[in-house]
Amino acid sequence: xxxxxxxxFEKNGEKLCDESFEAQSEQEAKEIGQxxxxxxxxxxxxxxxxxxxxxxxLFGR
Length: 61
Fold this sequence. Notes:
This protein is an alpha+beta fold. 23% of the residues lie in helices and 46% in strands. It contains one helix and four strands. The radius of gyration is 11 Å and the shape is globular. The model has no long low-confidence stretch (mean pLDDT 97).
């Protein structure tokens, strides 16, 4: 398992989410990130999901 990070921001820069989670693959991490965005109504917010090495998996502005 690898660690991935999801961060979500308001337009004014306020951080709404800054959490880490584990996933077996980058594809699974992307799916988990998308699910969390949808569940919390953050899909339209500025967001990013990255791997521990800094690889960008999801990004939205």
